[in-house]
Specification:
Blueprint (H helix, E strand, L loop, with lengths): L8 H10 L7 H11 L1 H4 L21 H41 L3 H4 L12 H18 L4 H10 L4 H4 L5 H9 L3 H10 L4 H19 L17 H5 L4 E2 L2 E2 L6 H11 L2 H21 L5 H8 L15
């Protein structure tokens, strides 16, 4: 099987033109391709191709539209990323508070495996997580300003400081091995149930990493689906073969998660910012309707109504 070979910018332009993409300003297109990478930019071509089997561009599709879609996704990632970081900080703060209050705040307390779930099937996971936490403490003890301060002044690092140097994925996994009472106390603060929070954490971690590394976001599908919520019903999301077609493992599922875990004002601002970016994109694309972008995102047409509906 022949592999992909290097193509210079002129050859990349020729490929796009041969597939029917209109390029009005060649120099502009060359500049964008050099700075943004042909491979990542053409990841948005699926909005503008004729079909799943015919990869030629539709009539009147332009390079400017392709780039506008790329920029929209970048802005979308920025909006999602900052809101996921808000939740990450909330989770770390709440988890460290609950664990410190219930079990103690020094290493001998939060690294004591007896303070985690008493389930033999979780023993390996508990031991691995304790090892990972110890490793992060050792790595950051004298490098991170907060951990260095506590080591030098108090001889230990409290849990509420340690969580600052733990990855979101590690903190999410840590939640899964807490004792039931601790899990419930944390979930209650977010006003959701334990199972939902455990389901949401790896999805949030997936999107956090995707956003941080500038991967394509708008049409991402996660391996994990979220449970049906009243939001699906209240927004009258249609079903196919008994399953909701939006809001399960797509970007709108993430929006439903954020609706449940963010403060109301933060979430409402998030929706307004996404609406703003969609309006900008709508004004820049002419060969397709913005509804096609919404469908690729897994957004129902009435997605903005989620700002006003609440779980009963």
């Amino acid at each position: 099987m022949n592999g992909k070979t290097f193509k210079n910018i002129d050859e990349q332009i020729d490929i796009l033109k041969s597939k029917g993409l209109i390029i009005n300003d060649i120099d502009y297109a060359k500049s964008i391709l050099l700075r943004e990478n042909y491979f990542f930019l053409t990841g948005y071509r699926f909005l503008f191709v004729r079909s799943n089997t015919d990869k030629r561009f539709i009539d009147n599709a332009t390079f400017e539209e392709l780039y506008a879609s790329f920029i929209f996704d970048r802005q979308l990632r920025n909006i999602l990323f900052k809101n996921i970081l808000v939740f990450e900080n909330n989770l770390k703060s709440i988890l460290s508070y609950v664990m410190s209050k219930n079990h103690g705040y020094k290493e001998k307390n939060y690294l004591n495996r007896n303070n985690f779930v008493h389930d033999s099937s979780k023993n390996k996971q508990i031991n691995d997580l304790i090892h990972k936490m110890k490793r992060q403490i050792n790595i950051n003890a004298k490098q991170h300003s907060a951990t260095r301060h506590f080591i030098y002044n108090y001889g230990y690092i409290p849990l509420w400081v340690v969580v600052k140097v733990l990855s979101f994925g590690l903190v999410g996994e840590l939640y899964t091995i807490l004792q039931y009472e601790d899990k419930k106390e944390i979930a209650n603060i977010f006003k959701i149930d334990i199972d939902s929070l455990q389901n949401y954490l790896p999805i949030l971690a997936n999107y956090r990493n995707l956003c941080a590394h500038e991967d394509i976001c708008y049409n991402n599908r996660t391996q994990i689906s979220i449970e049906n919520t009243k939001y699906h019903n209240l927004l009258n999301i249609p079903k196919m073969d008994g399953e909701y077609i939006y809001g399960k493992n797509d970007l709108f599922a993430l929006i439903i998660i954020l609706k449940r875990i963010l403060q109301k004002n933060d979430f409402n601002l998030l929706i307004k910012e996404i609406e703003y970016e969609l309006d900008i994109l709508s004004g820049k694309i002419k060969s397709i309707n913005v509804d096609k972008v919404l469908d690729a995102m897994g957004f129902p047409i009435n997605y903005k109504e989620i700002e006003r509906v609440d779980l009963i």
